[in-house]
Fold these 2 entries.
Entry 1:
Amino acid sequence: MPGLIRQALRFRVTSLSSAGRVTLGPVVTRGKVVELRPPVAADAVEWSRLVRPERDRLEPRWADSDLDWVTRSSADAWRDRCAELRRLARDGTALPFLITVDGAIAGELLLDRVDRERGSAEVEVWISEAREGTSITASALRLLLHHAFGEYELRRLTAAIPVGDRSAAALFSRAGFRREGLLRGYRRTADYELWSLLATDRPDESISDLPIVSAMDVPSSGRGFERSSALQRRLHELVPGGAHTYARGSDQYPEDMAPVLVRGDGSRVWDADGNCFIEYGMGLRSVTLGHGYRPVLDAVQRALADGVNFSRPTQLEVAAAEDFLSLVPGADMVKFAKNGSDATTAAIRLARAATGRDMVVVCDQPFFSADDWFIGAVEMNAGVPEATRGQTVRFQFNDLDSLRLRFAESGGQIACVVMEAATALAEPEPGFLEGVRALCDTHGALLVFDEMITGFRWSASGAQSVYGVRPDLSCWGKAMGNGFPISALAGRRDLMELGGLRTDSPRVFLLSTTHGPETVSLAAFRSVVQAYTEGDPIGVMERRGTELAEGVNAAARELGVTDYVAAIGRPSCLVFTTRDEDGRPSQPYRTLFLQEMLRRGVLGQSFVISAAHTVADVEHTVQAVREALVVYRRALEDGGVERFLAGRPVAPALRSLASPRRL
Ligand SMILES: Cc1ncc(COP(=O)(O)O)c(C=O)c1O
């Protein structure tokens, strides 16, 4: 089925009563959570709320019915139908389900005329006009088949399809049904085709394009970490630190619980042992639309076919630059590169050239670049010359006096102020950013905004548009390509031209790399821009993030541990706190929390979400948190994690010594 996103969630069968009524699913199809569940009385109310005034009815789609659905437009009528369905279920001759999409009723699926002696039943599918779509129905059907043959032990299913209903025929055919013949004058004298499916000849391939539901897709680490651990050991032999980014290192995870991944899909990742996890953090915040986001992949594939790297600029570079500058109205020119660090380092060089000064003031925020000018200012600074270290000084966020002091101390030597306008945990106080802007202007320094995280998470136009303060230069990366490597330096024309040909000043070597204009990432970027123009990924991330924070914090309340664990920060960029018995941030307790979450199929050093995270993902995560907090509380009561933690605690990524996680 072209375009169907193959992604599956946990598969759940919950027995509800002795009549064997069950809830099946969920599966995710096209980002929507599809479930089958038995109708309950309260559905009448929901149905009457959901019906659209102009078309307030369910239409028969792939089967006829004795019931007059067209008139079932009121809560009363729906209540009657629910009661009817429950009656059918009670006598065991029918198994009624409501098809729900993201929790809302979308239709009905009925396993009718169930004959367990003969092992046969009939299938009817109804779907509301508002929710019509093969992918949703296919998911519902897939869930039903799994149940009917597996749990209900039926051997033969039949479906009557109105003659000429090609989409229904295609759907049932893909599910493995075979056309058996014509039913002349069947049901109200209309003609139908009879299709059937036997349990024994249900070829798996015939339903391979429907969402796959299997134990593999239940988020958990039940398969253990044996293969991941072996691969991790090999990585340590081959790659210093066993990862290409310190933040991805095994020392950032509980010992022997560092999954080595093989693939991702939406919000999910799978590891070498076959475990499935809901992921948070999303490639160090570089993925906002979800892994394997189809439109980006399609754009990339189209670009690939035409070659990726040439001796002269491509048309794509014009289009991508236009896209970028239309998003960021404060910038006049842009230059693309691969890494965020390249962009911030270029901003520093440009600021130094433009001002003739050497000193840089950076805000006390975690990270700006992998290059010497910044690494000299962190704890892990071996190899950075003393002279370089002395050229970068810090000031405090939301503290204008600390910046004033830096300017006063520097003797007019500050070339630029580099900062994130906001972080997940710190919003600028009123007047702060304006104050920074004014101080820069007074002292002739440039203001550089690092939009690496804020770009495409706060707004596609960056924090500068959210807070209304225009920097001289801004640096972008991370989510620009939904994981593909692309970054950008943008800014005022008079500054940017110092790296161009419209200048008589000494030229600045401003971002010039072999792979800078490689077409794949530019195509990915353009597709990301389109996704943000046509949809609202930030709104989705904010809604899901809010639900997640509320769920996590409610779980912490339930267990009485709010002083120790909390989801905090901007909803699109949440982090969690892990404090010890004395309320101090604690690496051992962080490790315990990570360990318990990994055990329950959640992989994340933060709760940074994507627009692909579903309501069901959030529910699973909150349940995992609830269970993890039971262990966490026991450790608090015990006075420490020792009895609960399997290995050594994690340690900060940029520490100066390998200890306490030396291999
Ligand atoms: C705020 C910020 N700026 C710059 C960078 C550097 O980006 P890159 O890792 O792409 O070089 C990072 C990376 O984590 C970052 O978080």
Note: The pocket of pyridoxal-5'-phosphate is lined by residues 284, 339-341, 344, 367-370, 420, 450, 452-453, 477, 487 (CB under 6 Å).
Entry 2:
Amino acid sequence: MGSILQAKCSCGFDSGELCLGGGRLTFETNCAFPCNCSSCGHLSTPNLFESDNVCGECGKPGSTPYDDDVMVHPDSRVVEQPIGPVMTAVNKVLSVIPFRAAKAPEYDNSIFSWNAKGQLGRDLTLTENKYFCPQCKNYSLTFECVGMWD
Ligand SMILES: [Zn+2]
Ligand SMILES: [Zn+2]
């Protein structure tokens, strides 16, 4: 069963309802997931089980899935922040490196999660964190679960 999510930003951007994942009959071959198009900047939901991530707006391949670290607010990428003035320089360096491994295992503020290990080698997750907004280009976009679909 898939989820219906809506992405909103303080700048006024509203994605409308996004049907993510797959339905009862299609979950093995279809996994819709929000992606940001590097060509036109549109947020669309291509099927990640087809390798191209084709943008629903301009038709160009290579959209970046929203579970990619570059799409998440930099503050959300590192769980443990080194404290103290000595660590400031280190912290600066760390803060620009996407750090998937730093996320604690019990880290769970996910609002969408899809087991795609068989197809993609990873689980697809969206959390309550702030994400890159395709309209204002700030990390101020949030996803909200508004329902389920089958
Ligand atoms: Zn596009
Ligand atoms: Zn925005």
Note: The chain has two helices and nine strands.
